[in-house]
Design goal:
The protein is built from 12 helices and 2 strands, in the order αββααααααααααα. The chain has 325 residues and is mostly helical.
Length: 325
């Protein structure tokens, strides 16, 4: 039955993407600047299509799963307004914290305050890092397809059919969007897509943990490539005393594009990393604690090795540019 939700979400998302490209192409345009990886204006409304697909599958979704979807839709609507008209950073952050607090309280109440606070911070961070990582053709859409598909597999094998339906619908909506977002991208997610997808990645990961579908490390590894890139980049910028909220080109995926891999090559390399992490998470989630720890450690080591490779290659690339300047 969960395949029905996925098929409907895919078809609706595909139809809405085409409508956005033909009738509402100028609703919100991403204008290139000195920090962009694209060189022409591109509509940034693809998130509307993804979330439309998710909503269309609502008939298959249990009412117990409506709160995260409703909150994600609310964040998507606010983010669309931000895409079109702009909004202060403080107001955006306050709304993200509020949504995360409501959802974590709903999922975990009653619980102790420190645990709740840590999870709220985690949800807010993943919500925003998904937005930070939405800067290269096919990247965020591919992460959503792979990540939520892994959630769906983990949920259905754990007997959490309703959760599997929702996750498969999100993954299918992302797949329809990806058809028009893979390089050369004709449409971007925009904040209206990246923010709710990040929120759902975090909150559904917590929900699956609460329902014993997977351990708490599972969503961290499934979305590990995004979490590692954004977190390491933020920490580096904080250490250097930079204004972390300002746009930049220091993410690993941005450097990979600039070093010559291009959008397609970067997306394919990161898809492979995502698949490796998702496979390790799925294979290790129901094993004894030692095997779980090894699965998580193995996935982390793969990400660390990829980061070292990227750092070394970037250092050579930067030295080459200095010599030729």
């Amino acid at each position: 039955m969960y395949w029905g939700a996925a098929v409907l979400a895919f078809l609706v998302s595909l139809a809405v993407v085409r409508l956005l490209l033909t009738r509402f192409a100028r609703l919100a345009l991403d204008q290139p600047n000195e920090r962009s990886l694209h060189d022409r204006p591109v509509p940034r409304t693809g998130g509307i299509a993804v979330m439309a697909g998710v909503v269309s599958s609502g008939l298959w979704i249990s009412p117990q799963l409506w709160p995260p979807v409703i909150l994600a839709l609310g964040l998507g609507a606010v983010s669309l307004l931000d895409d079109v008209r702009g909004m202060s950073r403080r107001l955006r952050l306050a709304l993200h914290v509020g949504a995360a607090g409501v959802l974590c309280w709903y999922v975990l109440s009653p619980t102790n305050a420190p645990e709740l606070m840590l999870l709220v911070i985690a949800v807010v961070w993943v919500t925003n890092l998904y937005n930070f990582m939405d800067g290269s053709d096919g990247l965020a859409g591919g992460m959503a397809l792979i990540g939520f598909s892994a959630y769906a597999i983990g949920a259905v094998t754990a007997g959490q059919v309703a959760l599997a339906m929702l996750c498969s619908a999100i993954g299918a909506g992302a797949a329809a969007f990806l058809l028009h977002n893979f390089h050369p991208a004709r449409i971007f997610l925009g904040d209206a897509g990246s923010i709710p997808l990040g929120f759902l990645a975090a909150t559904l990961g917590i929900l699956g943990w609460r329902n014993d579908a997977w351990p708490l490390w599972f969503p961290l590894l499934v979305f590990g490539p995004f979490i590692a890139d954004a977190t390491v980049t933020l920490l580096r910028r904080l250490i250097r005393g930079e204004r972390v909220w300002r746009a930049h080109r220091e993410h690993y995926y941005q450097r990979m594009v600039l070093m010559g891999l291009g959008h397609r090559g970067t997306a394919l390399v990161l898809y492979l990393l995502m698949l490796v992490c998702a496979a390790a998470a799925l294979l290790g989630r129901n094993q004894p604690p030692l095997i779980q720890a090894l699965a998580f450690l193995g996935g982390t080591m793969v990400l660390a090795a990829a980061a070292v490779w990227a750092d070394l290659r970037w250092a050579r690339f930067a030295r080459g540019n200095e010599r030729s300047a």
